[in-house]
Amino acid sequence: MIKLIQFAGIASLLACANIVSAGTVIQIQNADSMVTILTDGKFARMNVSADEYAIVDYSRQTVKIVNPKMRQVMLLDDGRAAGGNPGSRLRTSVKKLGKGVVIAGYPTQKYAYSANGKSCGVIYGSAELYQKKGIKALLLAVDNILEKQQAMLGGFASMMDDCTLADMNIGRHVNTTGVPMRTEKNGVLDSEIKSIKLGVSLPADTFVIPASYKTVTMEQQIREAREQMQQYQPQIQQMMRQYP
Fold first, then answer.
1. Is residue 17 one of the residues assigned to a domain?
2. What is the CATH classification number for the domain harbouring 208?
3. What share of the chain is helix, strand, coil (3-state, %, to 5)?
4. If you write DSSP's letter for every residue of 103-159 in order, what string do you get?
5. Residues facing 27 on adjacent strands
6. Quick one: 226 exposed, middle or buried, by C-beta within 10 A (0-12, 13-18, 19+)?
7. 63 in any annotated domain
């Protein structure tokens, strides 16, 4: 998705003139992908998939999913179209197990976490990293994205496994665990922070979305999908008549 391109000669000099204040860059290894998060304390940028990235505005508490190929920006709304309260049935908890291992240069403590009494896995958390400048704001931004995703699920959350929902609520326990540096499920690595770079100079356009991109909301996307289904309704009914 986001590819780092190295420029030589005059191009690199021009890039150096286009720098903002120091930021933080974090790389997280998931089961099938490497996620890079960049933040300057006011905004965060993180890849969502190979074709999309998210821009989070801390002060406005907005989350925008940007698709450069489609030249489109989707604003995550509150998910009212889905209905329901995805977190109403979920009770999560963490229990300290003891000293963990050093991850990305930070010592950790080991915690077990559960949902509705069901064991969901192990968290290695760093209290030291949690105290670093800008980290708390970043975790709040990530938690904001997850909350919006849950809101979009609405009533569909009842069909999800408790531990899947618990994964989306780990942020509720950072005051206890610190920054989740690694999570394991059934003894298998699920995700791990591989590197953390503080005081990094970020390009000035890191968090800028081109003004020419079309903005849509999740509610609009759902409505358009329903309209398309309605267009094909007569054909579907005709096909059903052929198979009594």
1. yes
2. 2.50.20.10
3. 30, 35, 35
4. BTTB--EEEEEEETTEEEEEEEEEHHHHTSTTHHHHHHHHHHHHHHHHHHHGGGGGG
5. 36, 195
6. exposed
7. yes
Distance (Å, whole) CA 68 – CA 107:
38
Q: How many domains does the chain have?
A: 1
For residues 164 and 63, give the distance between their C-alpha atoms in angstroms, rounded to a whole number: 21
pLDDT string in tens for the chain (244-residue length): 333 333 333 232 233 333 345 788 999 998 778 889 898 888 989 887 778 899 988 888 788 889 999 999 988 764 444 444 444 567 889 999 999 999 999 999 999 999 998 999 999 999 999 888 878 877 877 766 666 666 665 555 566 788 888 887 788 888 899 999 999 998 889 999 999 998 899 998 999 999 999 998 866 655 555 555 555 455 444 444 444 4
* H/E stretch holding 53: strand 53-57
Q: How many residues does the chain have?
A: 244
Please state, in angstroms and rounded to a whole number, the distance separating the CA atoms of residues 148 and 143: 9
Sign of CA dihedral 112, 171, 147, 46: negative
Query: For 66, what's the count of Cα atoms within 13 Å in the CB-facing half-sphere?
Result: 20
